[in-house]
Structure formats: structure tokens, C-alpha cells
Design brief:
Helices cover 88% and strands 0% of the residues. By secondary structure, the protein is an all-alpha fold. The relative contact order is 0.05.
């Protein structure tokens, strides 16, 4: 097999793989868009829960800093 044919075959295989990856990424993008479009009714509940968890984490962080900084058992 000549070098020219090997190079062309390698290029064809790489181009085919790039095409498969492109189609796969387009399909994944469509699925992500559908997930965000369909989840709008639950979006507010998710945001509210995330805010509540974030607030609880900040509260725990501040209490931990007080306990570590002051070494006061009342801050446990």
C-alpha cells in the first residue's frame, strides 16, 4: 500500500470519527435544552431549595468560625 493511500485512509477515519463526535454532541445539546425547557415548573423549587441549603451552610460556617476563634463551648 502506498503512502498516499495510507494517509488518505487515515484522514478518512479521523474525519469519520470527528463526524460521529459532532453528531453525538448535537444530540447531547438537544437533550440538555429539552431538560431545561421542560423543567421550568420545578425550577423555582430547585432554586429555593438551593438558597436554603446555601444559607444553612453559611450559618454553619459562621458558627464554626466562632467556635474555633473563641473556643467558647456555648458556640457549639
Amino acid at each position: 500500500m502506498k503512502l498516499h493511500y495510507r494517509l488518505f485512509a487515515t484522514f478518512a477515519v479521523i474525519a469519520l470519527l470527528a463526524g460521529v463526535v459532532a453528531l453525538y454532541s448535537l444530540n447531547a445539546t438537544r437533550q440538555i435544552i429539552k431538560a431545561f425547557e421542560g423543567g421550568e415548573e420545578h425550577f423555582q423549587a430547585i432554586i429555593a431549595a438551593a438558597n436554603e441549603v446555601s444559607g444553612a451552610a453559611k450559618q454553619a460556617q459562621s458558627e464554626l468560625l466562632l467556635f474555633l476563634g473563641l473556643r467558647d463551648p456555648a458556640n457549639r
